[in-house]
Amino acid sequence: MILYDEEEYLQLSGIQHFAFCRRQWALAYMELQWAENVRTVEGKLLHEKAHDVMSREKRGAPKQNHVDVLQLAAQAMCLEEMLCCDIPEGYLYYGKTRHRERVELCEAVRQEVRDMLQEMHGYFSRKYTPRVKWSKGCNACSLRDICLPVLGKGKSAEKYVETHIAEEN
Length: 169
What we know:
Helix content: 40-55%
């Protein structure tokens, strides 16, 4: 187990961002860049109403990837350490399906969380923001205008310069 000094602690909420996109995590959690969009505002409002039994507006839905599972596992691992207990399972509730989904917190998921946290600490200690890797998820990202993922879609700057120099000769 690696022990970190308090100034090296990372926000637990960052694991879901990191799993979604390493660059998004670095921009938000290291460079403190943030921008709101419809999805972030809706998410904030839904979190505020999460424990309001009268609220019927929760729209969260299961995701294609397992970023929610990783976030849940990370939270459970922290609780286990704090409370000296074992948490073998957890539940994710999605308002869209109005269904609780049981999640087994198996060793494979826990190891993925540990590996991800180690990678996050590596980036954090080096103050390294990963390069753009465009994906379909970029279209919905609130940091799209800060990150500029379209720059990672095309040719490299070096290729661009080489092409234009060759055209001039």
